Amino acid sequence: MMDILYRSTRNDKIAVKASQAILKGLAEDGGLFVPNEIPSLDKTLNELSAMNYREVAYEIMKLFFTDFTEEELKNCIEHAYDSKFDNSEIAPTIGDMSPYFLELFHGSTIAFKDMALSILPYLMITSAKKNQATNEIVILTATSGDTGKAALAGFADVEGTKIIVFYPKSGVSMIQEKQMVTQVGANTHVIGIEGNFDDAQTGVKNIFSDKEFEQLMNQNGFQFSSANSINIGRLIPQVVYYVYSYVQLLKRNEIKEGEQINFVVPTGNFGNILAGYYAKKMGLPIAKLICASNDNKVLYDFFETGVYDRNREFVLTTSPSMDILISSNLERLIYRIAGNSSEKNAKLMSDLSKVGRYEITDEMKNELADFYGNYASEEETAEAIASLYHKTGYVMDTHTAVAYSVYEKYKAETADQTKTVIVSTASPYKFTRSVMDAIDTAYDTMTEFELVDELEKLSKVAVPQAIEEIRTARVIHQTTCDKSEMKDAVKAFLKL
Questions:
Q1: d(C-alpha 485, C-alpha 479), whole Å
Q2: Which of 17, 24, 62, 113 is the catalytic position?
Q3: pLDDT of residue 229
Q4: Omega before 35 cis (within 30°)?
């Protein structure tokens, strides 16, 4: 099997091995690492359907992370997908008819970010050893709510690492914030910024590309890496659950081998749906990838017009993990539909940076046939939660509700009867107030944890351990800063 190399989306002369791409996080020119080819599945879908989640994970990741030995990769997988997950299937696909729900919230922080951030610390430490890295790795991450906690939980007290998480102080749910600011671990640091997620993400990217700062870090025995989905070590593990969901339906005789299905993905940063696209390019029989946006509908507008324009009002919604106007992972798709041209991609990303917009060619638009985009308003999101609950008793969170609402629009628009999986990215317990208000406004007077107990009665699903832990947890992290002070905050934590 040939080695897969990873090239920068902005300069394809840069080519590194998987372990080097994982360690770096972001390419030196600010580009994202992409595989020089997307490998094909080398097991049949029937063969994969006989495997558990860990076994499927190995079969997918070995094709991408070709410089890892079998022992190294299996060790990472075994440590990642263990009793931290409260369901033996790790990522169960539930329901006995379409649409099915792929539940990605059974990990330790009850959101889909656990699926990749449970394994990233092990991939990173293994990568450091493989490349004789002697510097301490400083994970620098911006979060719109879920990545932060999942990264903190994954890297807490991992030897040879420190982790700094920036989040928008007024842009996450109370539960999301409490999960982050109560995180234990001597190597963890959480900072709320006065600004939105895009400000946090831009600040982190600017720090990564600051050569002077990189030199200062190196002199003091540190090097940056990222736990955001810009890190290829985050993206590839997400490919696994698309394959696993398909083969679970195959195993249950819900579908036949080779039958095409749709996936509906609520997304802001485009990483989750991009992983589905990679799965399709590997040979997984996916018909449509349905991209669901909230009121920050920059991706919907892009799929409609071919114009990506972040020059618009930023809306705070009840699905905060999708409150994003700069979808970083879309760059990987743009690079691919530009014919793997780093030159064309770099020009578009320069336009985005300078004027806040870019427009793709008609030829590139034709390459987007795998996708359908739409969005759900706040009212439609609440309506979706209430209607599904009253119809079936199933309670979904706000992000999943965005996907459900968009799927209803897709069906009405296309009359497509293809069996469909809705990607459920978070537990409703993570957004209890928005979920309970959607079901009945009478809950409005209750405290956050009274709502948690009420949700348990309604949903007949036990309160997850992640929520029980923060009821009485002590707030440890109270640092805040302006978006212009992020570099100074990093320096202060690292004592530079």
A1: 12
A2: 113
A3: 82
A4: no
Residue with tokens 């379409």: 98
DSSP string spanning 46-82?
Answer: HHHHTS-HHHHHHHHHHHH-TTS-HHHHHHHHHHHSS
Which CATH architecture fits 93-110+233-464?
3-Layer(aba) Sandwich (3.40)
Residue extents of the structural domains in the chain: 93-110+233-464
* Contact criterion met (CB below 8 Å) for 390 and 383: no
Q: Which amino acid is at 1?
A: M
- Two tokens at 38? 């997307």
C-alpha angle with apex 18: 15 to 20, nearest 5 degrees?
Answer: 70
Integer-rounded Cα radius of gyration of the chain: 21
Mark whether 457 is an active-site residue.
Answer: no
Residue 146: predicted pLDDT: 82
Element (H, E) at 22: helix 18-24
pLDDT at 1: 63
Predicted local confidence at residue 261, as pLDDT = 98
CA–CA distances in Å: residue 18 to residues 21, 127, 137, 222: 5, 8, 17, 21
In this prediction, the residues of the chain whose per-residue pLDDT falls under 50 are: none
In whole angstroms, give the CA distance from residue 105 to residue 303.
28
Residue 487 has what pLDDT? Answer: 96
Q: Which of 5, 45, 111 is nearest to 254 (CA)?
A: 45
